[in-house]
Amino acid sequence: MPQMMPGAEQAGKMNIDEMQETGMNILSMVASIITLPVEIFLRPQFGTRYFAAPIFFLSSILLMLLSAFSGVAAGIGQMLPGQGKDPVGVYGIGSFTTLFFMASLVHGFRTFRRMTHPELELISTFEGPPLPIFALLPYGHSFWVVRIFWEGLFVIAVAILLSNFLIIQTALKLYLEIVGCALAMKNYIQWFRSWTYIRTLMDMTNIGPVLANIVSGAATDEELERVHLASLPRNLPDDMRRATVEYMARAFHAPEPRPPQPPNPEAGSSGLIFILRALIVSALICFGMSWLTGYRQHIRMATQHLTVKRSPFDGKADTSSPQVPAVNTAPDPVPPPPALTKMTGYWLGRGYLSRRGMCTIHLEIRRAPDNHFAAYSTLVCIPMGRIIYSGMRPIVPTPTSAILSGTIADGSIRFRSEKNIDGAGTGCVMKMLNATPFGARQITAEWKDDPCHGGQMILARVQQ
Fold this sequence. Notes:
This protein is α+β, with helices and mostly antiparallel strands. The chain has helices spanning about 5-40, 55-80, 95-115, 145-165, 170-215, 220-225, 240-250, 265-305, 340; strands spanning about 345-355, 355-370, 370-380, 390, 395, 400-410, 410-420, 430-435, 440-450, 455-464. The chain is built from nine helices and ten strands.
């Protein structure tokens, strides 16, 4: 029985080591699947074998599933009460998926060139140098500091910044934040494996003198504590003493390097064919989804504007032409449709307008006598990318407000300005505004405020 105990303990230790190695393999694989779509932008010069073909395929499937789930969740959220109040960003997971497939296609040609000309790269498993901007940060020239800390923090910071400027949507921001954490975990596992190998070799070097003292019987209690061993009996036979030392030496042995496998001439071609097929299938699926989404939006817009004969901002109505009737200002005997009646309340929209910057519009719509409507608008725009100064004090953009009266026309409420309040003296006063229902809790606002070229924006209800 005593002879079986060391073997059992060794087997238990190996099981623990195997569990740790298996856990690190699973975490590294999951993190690689999550981070691959971002890593191709962080390290655009990665080697041909840095990303395995199954990892690329699973990353493509993950992005497509996230795009589909994000679209379904957004559609369901619009139908829930109390949702859709805050403005959303311009680009979502679907846009990032399209960008990923386009970048993968470009990298596919680069990888194919390196596979057919192996002399173009030194090590095919190298992930490539980091972006030059990391060299400006503290410890930016340290390989592992950049990989474990700065790259993950950079991805998280970019996600927060783009989300605050309404460039990306919340779902894409959350995904990029998860990518930053997964990137740090993946790189830490790689560093930990390298450190474990080096640390094991150092332990073997340091344990040698202790084992020699144990064999000779001259080991002190302090040396025995370092190897977790109690004192050996002084009358222990030499063969049992050597067996004990051999067992301890096996406990501190370094992992033997695996012999290099002979190259398989068919492996490269099969892997290349798999990558090309995955790229083609993913590109077809991506463009098919984009075409289907665009076609559905086209059908919806065509149905919505089927009865619209003319834009409200094409100019004044020509009363002499029988094809374009003038706006009827007489009381409308027909009550307004329920969809337009529900537009009364407070609305808010925020977005980027060309030549204006980041603009915010507040709109209040109320019922008026004779089936008419009244509205009160406030528009403020902040130029992006520059700050305007007058002397030593910054000029704060002053909002322009207007009082509007509107009538029903072609399924919308067409407002005309009654009074304008231009505190900044810019001359960009509201002339006319057209409000149209858009979905369950949104409306579209199109306005004209010469000489500022007007604008279009989607508004969400903020208060009833």
